[in-house]
Amino acid sequence: MAYDKFTILRSTAVPLPTENVDTDQIIPARFLKATEREGFGDNLFRDWRYDVEGNPKKDFVLNDPTYSGKILLAGKNFGSGSSREHAVWAIYDYGFRCVVSSFFADIFKNNCLNIGVLPVTVSAEFADKLFAAIQADPKTEIEVNLPEQKVKLLTTGEFESFDINEYKKDNMQNGFDDIDYLLNMSSEIDAFAASR
Amino acid sequence: MEKTTLFDKIWDSHVVKSVPAGPDVFFIDKHFIHEVTSPVAFLNLEKRGIGVKNPSRTVATPDHNVPTVDQDKTIKDKLSRMQVERLRENCAKYGIELHDLGSAHHGIVHVIGPELGITQPGMTIVCGDSHTSTHGAFGAIAFGIGTSEVEMVLATQCIMQSKAKKMRISVNGTLGPGVTSKDIILYIISKISAAGATGYFVEYAGSAIQSLSMEARMTICNMSIEMGARGGLIAPDETTFNYLKGKQYAPKGADWDKAVAYWKTLKTDEGAVFDKELVFEAADIEPMITYGTNPGMGIKITENIPSTAGMEGSNKTSYLKSLEYMGFAPGESVKGKPVDYVFVGSCTNGRIEDIRSVAQFVKGHKKADNITAWIVPGSKEVEKMAHEEGLVKILEEAGFVLRQPGCSACLAMNDDRIPSGKYAVSTSNRNFEGRQGPGARTMLASPLTVAAVAITGCITDPREVFAN
């Protein structure tokens, strides 16, 4: 369904350098039992965020008031495992609009683009630079500029370009989703199906 | 003529249109749905005021959250019950074939698709579940999708996908005794890591792959996603055709001959180029087990857990965090470590051959006292065969508890959970933190290894048990 348009996002970021964060960590399977898309943000990183009694774990970054923002700065191979889109719903619902990592799992990345969370892949070196900057000053702002396809460290002006295909970029900038596109080519799809 | 791969042949023939500087509009032949990833897709269709374009191309079954006891009764868990009921309502409303709880072909979606002959060579198959790659064993392009894409397929029979890069993984030679297809795939993932095939679609080839049964091939393709691959596939051959012949939804009569003639064309041309090629020797593969919290963290049972030598930064931190969760130390051996649970089941290893191999192994023996042993058939059909072949009796005499079909303890959405801190050796596909229940410690292995562990009560090389 339609989502908020994404153009330029300036925000502080929440750092989570752990590698190979799978979608079972982002949202454990036992929280997938909804029949509507609501309330997933409450269970984002549930088992890292809360203990068995439901008390916040102090050492987890989402519980640390030092860090906040609309950008999640994540470790390598983020979003591996299950195809559950609920993982991205949880990220969006919590308030993140962009995930920056040096490496994303494939299905997760697609799911992000489909619901309006921008996945930005940067080099490992630039990711390290961003982590270091946030560690040094949690108020460090990052600018994610979709039209120019650039992610910039606002304190120093250092930036890196990122890839996104023109079609998905256009969708993100306008808040369109794929179904709008597919429904518009219904007759072409019918002709294709008939020819098979 | 241009030399193309099996993947190219199937992909290219399903592209309705290539969007300039964008993805392909990709036509889907078969769509499987289940109760967990479909309800929001149906809800969105309603919000948009549109229906299901071609209900005959979608097949449904509830599998992820269902209880594995008392399936004839109302589901106790309210949220699970609501999801299953919503699936029933949606299937009835749109005329979608449903294999409901208790019916003859209920089961895990990736078990029943092949079993019914719905899965066929040359098809494009998707499902809101990453283990859809299982169906690639038949020479189909099959992969997992998110709920937005489930909605796309329901609404338009297409999704928008960029074509993946191509990788071929060849495994040549003959497997040693006690080594199974599960060990092949755990070995490959341990070599290339849990992200080693991200961005690729993998074709498995080589004599060791060709010699496998369909069920063993499904185990391999099933875990393609565990190395990050979009999917995996194997060229169809006589083994494939023999498996499909006579299945309920397989073509019959003249249609069968026509289908087989087409299926025989589905192979990679000699000289076709892959973006990446990897070659392994079957003789190098031994019974495998995972020791960490992603499927790439696997070793031969005879090996020690890797030390931290050469690791630094977040790589080392993540590794130590993982071992701490598992209660293991770098450099130590896992052999002889006590285990609490064994689980035989899932879309990876919940088929009749898996249950046969466990039953054959444990026949005349008893499980160790410290072990709780669960066996969960992948489908009603598998359950039925297990009864008819006397396997259930053998397993129950050995102290295993047989449960009803479903995804069960693979992802612990129902009550089949491993308690916090306990060790489970499991035939499933993921050893992520909390995958089998909060705090549960999962070690992935083959059904044979799981059988050996059940008998000895600790991590055991199956080749050392009942060496006769």
From TrEMBL, chain A:
The EC number(s) given in the record are: 4.2.1.33
Catalytic reactions on record = (2R,3S)-3-isopropylmalate = (2S)-2-isopropylmalate
Task: Provide the Aconitase A/isopropylmalate dehydratase small subunit swivel domain boundaries.
Answer: 5-124
UniProt GO MF annotations: 3-isopropylmalate dehydratase activity
Q: Could you tell me the keywords of this UniProt record?
A: Amino-acid biosynthesis, Branched-chain amino acid biosynthesis, Leucine biosynthesis, Lyase
Q: Which domain of life is it from?
A: Bacteria
> Pathway of this protein?
Amino-acid biosynthesis; L-leucine biosynthesis; L-leucine from 3-methyl-2-oxobutanoate: step 2/4
What family does this belong to? Belongs to the LeuD family. LeuD type 1 subfamily.
According to its UniProt entry, what is the function of this protein? Catalyzes the isomerization between 2-isopropylmalate and 3-isopropylmalate, via the formation of 2-isopropylmaleate.
What quaternary arrangement does the UniProt entry report? Answer: Heterodimer of LeuC and LeuD.
Q: What is this protein called?
A: 3-isopropylmalate dehydratase small subunit
Q: Which organism is it from?
A: Algoriphagus boritolerans DSM 17298 = JCM 18970
Automatic annotation (TrEMBL), chain B:
What InterPro entries does its record include? Answer: 3-IsopropMal_deHydase_lsu (IPR004430), Acnase/IPM_dHydase_lsu_aba_1/3 (IPR015931), Acoase/IPM_deHydtase_lsu_aba (IPR001030), Aconitase_4Fe-4S_BS (IPR018136), Aconitase_4Fe-4S_dom (IPR036008), IPM_dehydratase_rel_enz (IPR050067), IPMI_cat (IPR033941)
Which controlled-vocabulary keywords does the entry list?
Answer: 4Fe-4S, Amino-acid biosynthesis, Branched-chain amino acid biosynthesis, Iron, Iron-sulfur, Leucine biosynthesis, Lyase, Metal-binding
Q: Where is the Aconitase/3-isopropylmalate dehydratase large subunit alpha/beta/alpha domain?
A: 8-457
Q: Could you tell me what this protein is called?
A: 3-isopropylmalate dehydratase large subunit
Q: What class of enzyme is it?
A: lyase
One short Pfam name that applies is: Aconitase
> What's the domain of life for this entry?
Bacteria
**Cofactor note (record):** Binds 1 [4Fe-4S] cluster per subunit.
The text of the family note is: Belongs to the aconitase/IPM isomerase family. LeuC type 1 subfamily.
